[in-house]
Amino acid sequence: MEFVKPRTFDEAIETIGKRSPIGSKLNSSEWAAVPVELRARAFFSSQVENVRFLQRGKDTITDFLSGAREKVIDPYGREQTALKAGSRAEFVKQMQSFAIAEGMGPLDPADAGTIKDITSQRRLELIFDTNTRAAQGFGYYKQGLDPDVLDAFPAQRFIRVADVSEPRGDHAQHEGIVLLKTDPFWAAINKDFGVPWQPFGWGCQHDVEDVDREEAEQLGLIKPGETVTAPEKSLNDRLQASTRHIDPDLRQTLRENLGDAAEFDDEEHTMRWKKKPKGATP
């Protein structure tokens, strides 16, 4: 899906701003073992250790979402203003140049141009799409839990927004389902990311649309006059998570690969991202 314009709203920009660039050798399956409360607060990419690259990616996506502008000189020598990052193609171009300059090409020449190659168009498009959709999905989710909005539109419908070559059976079977926004289903169906907002998985082209109170009442999801209460805290507000259900060997892998980015408390069975000192550079 190509985003031709940034959709600016504070909640989307806020969630990107709260993420810390975390460089590590962890692959996708190992990252999936990191508690979702912490993954939602990290800006990362599978097996990317270069924090400078991740910070640049985060900043560029923030520029896209916020519609940030900069002064440029046009071919006629006149000063103009232009979007810093106005499209996915521009993000790919900027990040390709940065990654090549940092010497971040694939170790195995056979991986050149594939999803394993951080300089490839396909990999960079995936980073852009996943992070912009996650930020916008969180923003839509948070706006939908506003008490007034939740009262008027207490439920949502699972819909397909674009075709894919290989639809997921566990998603396709639920197309059209309507449930309260607070139902655990929304996080449960998102097996890749574990959050109740889109994207609902790698490459997933499903989203949600609001369902008003009248329809929700007709479907028996809510009684007339009943109040739906939003969760007290969202995942994005948390900095610490339990490690009790993580296999000990995998917990050690996380400890070794996350390095100084995380701290583990073996007595309390928790892990958390470390806060950077004020003025620290990535």
Q: Gap between N and C termini, in Å?
A: 31 Å
How many helical stretches? 11
Strand residue content:
5-15%
Q: Unreliable stretches, pLDDT < 50, 5 or more residues?
A: 1-7, 277-282
Let me know the largest β-sheet. 3 strands, antiparallel
The number of strands is 10
Q: Strand-and-helix sequence, N→C?
A: HEHHEHEEHHHEHEHEHEHEE
Radius of gyration equals 20 Å
Overall spatial form: globular
Number of domains: 2
Physical arrangement of strands within the biggest beta sheet: 6-5-7
Mean pLDDT: 85
Class based on secondary structure composition and strand pairing: alpha+beta
Helix content: 25-40%
Produce the secondary structure layout.
Layout: H1 10-17, E1 20-21, H2 28-32, H3 36-39, E2 42-43, H4 51-66, E3 69-73, E4 79-83, H5 88-101, H6 121-144, H7 147-152, E5 155-160, H8 169-172, E6 178-180, H9 185-188, E7 206-211, H10 213-218, E8 240-242, H11 248-258, E9 262-265, E10 270-273
Parallel strand pairs: 1-2
Antiparallel strand pairs: 3-4, 5-6, 5-7, 8-10, 9-10
Write up what this structure looks like.
Mean pLDDT is 85; it is low at 1-7 and 277-282. The strands form four sheets. Strands 6-5-7 form a three-stranded antiparallel beta sheet. A three-stranded antiparallel beta sheet has the order 8-10-9. It has a two-stranded parallel ribbon with strand order 1-2. The chain contains eleven helices and ten strands. It folds into two domains: 1-145 and 277-282, no CATH class; 147-230, no CATH class. It has 282 residues and is α+β, with helices and mostly antiparallel strands.
